Amino acid sequence: MKPGRADRICALSLFALGAGLGAAFFLRMPQGARPSIQDEAVYLLQARMLASGRLTYPSPPLPEFFEAAHVLVVPCYAAKYFPGHAAVLAPFVALGVPWLAPCLLFGATLALLFLAARWAQLPPWAGLTAAGLVVGSGEMVAIFGTFLSQTTSVALVAAAIAAGTALRARPTPLRAALLFACAGAAGLVRPFVGAALAVAAAAWLLHLRPRPWRRFAAAALGPLAVAALLTAAVCRATTGSWTVSPWTLYARQYMPFDGPGIGPLRPAEARQQLPPHLARLGEAFLDSRRLHTYARLPAEVQRRGQIVEDLAPGQLVIPFALTGLLWAPLWIASAFALVFFFLQLTFHFVSATYYLEMYPWLALAAAAGASVLLRAAGRLAPRQWAPLLAAPVLLVGLFVTVQGVENLREELKRAPLADAPYARYEPTFAWLRRQRALVFLRYPPEWNPNLDLTYNEPDLQKAQLVRAIDLGPRDAQLLPWFPDRPAYQLDLANLSVQRIR
Description:
By secondary structure, the chain is mainly alpha-helical. The protein is built from 20 helices and 6 strands. The longest helix is centred in the C-terminal third of the chain and has 29 residues, at 386-414.
């Protein structure tokens, strides 16, 4: 079934709706520092580097003053993440509107899910239902009000499912290339997502009848080869090795226990200690990894399955999603979800955010399940009884709609508080920026390790404000590197500022 003119109009409308909702989240925030967690600050730093035409910068002088969570300061100044998401943010960072990228990605996700449903031979209302389930999920809506990489990876999953369903409807080399390009791009954003998409795409290509995979081998392998070369080049530029990723190097430096793995920890010493204000973050990750054992795996599978279930606006969505597994045109989405779920089991730390890439499958499967049940009611019952059989499906739909609207209202109310952890310090930093200052940050002993304020601009010499960790008497060693800047010490416990030069 090829989407018609009405479908294209509907997809464009969903794109506009999603972009508008995303904008509503960002524009309702108070002025100030927009990130709410460390990862967002890191992605924005990486995007600024890319916007300036560079993947990395030279190590800052005396790197121990500039250590921050998830940032390498040696052998270069760079993020520990692959740059796929930052590359999406970079053009918008250059234009001064970085928040616009997640908004457009939200709109693209809704439009792509609708088109995937139509390519999968579902009726238009089912495509709208899938998009509505996304809008009604508090976790999904909230993530598109952030700069987290899930905004890009979720959109790429939706694009891959749309490309896969289109490929099934009419196999062409271009559609095969688009499907595998989504997998390759996702690997540069979140590697587990890319790996799961590549496996699902390969299985999908082999599953197609008549078998076109021999003709499409180049179309499939080409994008993956390009992605692999880009990945190796990023590793080489960042770590000096073609095979050591930035994440791996960061783990070796600070947290050798962090990363995929189940069972006993292999003994390994960190090359250097985390800064004191981040020490408890390392301890929390170590405790999480120690608990990730094979004995606990069955309970962990159940817990993580519950996390995925709770993403939906109401648990009544799940029976419809299970029914939707029967819908063959969407099996590529199911294959991805299954592979991704088990890949994530190898990682010790988890939250709902880590499973958002499964939600496009869940939304489409639920919409397909509703369509299957309504079609069955129409076929199996006399015309006069069909509405009665369809009534439970419609009632569940009404309940889920009400719950979804309530979730959306709650997230819109929460939006003005999204950057609260950083906003408290922003007026002080704004004043320091006007001074073009070098500021030494004194973190109190009981500092929240999930809040890091030592993020800088890529080019420290040109930055309006240079932030450094207060190392006591050693602060004097850094002063000659920034001779033209006034220097201050900021006590983050009470926001008192003391000039030291």
